[in-house]
């Protein structure tokens, strides 16, 4: 027998070590891609306390048509807006009493937008900024505007039309 064939005790081969390391690495990657079922995904950094980012149909009492109420008009700051991640929508109020809505998904690489500040809807993935008035690109790398969504204001309730 040659020295390569003699086995004494447990020997870890290079192949077994690499396979084990690969399995651990794959497990880590898959775990990072998973979802956390303890939340509903409506982590709305821009939503004030007491607003209804999840679109609770019972929020605000009578909503006049059974549609899901996104928020109250008083909760949307003038010159700003709120992001409703669970509904993939951003509601803005460019001027007092004027409400607009846009997709909450950046047109650059489909990242969710992260905040509304300084008159723009902002995506922190790559720095794109969109106008709160019409969704147009104010700062790239995005080249296409955010898609507009129709909203209806009934009394103090804002719903998707």
| Residues in helices, as a percent range | 10-25%
**Overall mean pLDDT score?**
72
Strand order of the largest sheet: 2-3-4-9
Structure summary, number of beta strands: 11
Q: What's the order of the H and E elements? A: HEEEEEEEEEEE
Give me the Rg, rounded: 24 Å
> What's the story with the biggest beta sheet?
4 strands, antiparallel
- Judged by helices, strands and strand pairing, the structural class is alpha+beta
Q: How many H/I helices? A: 1
- Give the percentage of residues in beta strands: 15-25%
Low-confidence residue ranges: 35-65
Quaternary state of the chains: single chain
Alpha carbon gap, first and last residue: 81 Å
Morphology: elongated
Supply database-style keywords.
4-stranded antiparallel β-sheet, single chain, 161 residues
Description:
By secondary structure, this protein is of the alpha+beta class. The chain is built from one helix and eleven strands; from the N terminus they run αβββββββββββ. It has one helix at 14-33, and strands at 69-72, 80-84, 89-93, 100-103, 115-117, 120-122, 129-131, 137-139, 148-149, 151-154, 157-160. It has a four-stranded antiparallel sheet with strand order 2-3-4-9, with no helix packed on it. The protein has a four-stranded antiparallel sheet with strand order 5-6-7-8, with no helix packed on it. It has a three-stranded antiparallel sheet with strand order 1-11-10, with no helix packed on it. A hairpin with a 2-residue loop joins strand 5 (115-117) and strand 6. The chain is elongated, with a radius of gyration of 24 Å. It starts with 13 loop residues before the first helix and ends with a strand. 24% of the residues are buried. Residues 35-65 have low confidence and may be disordered.
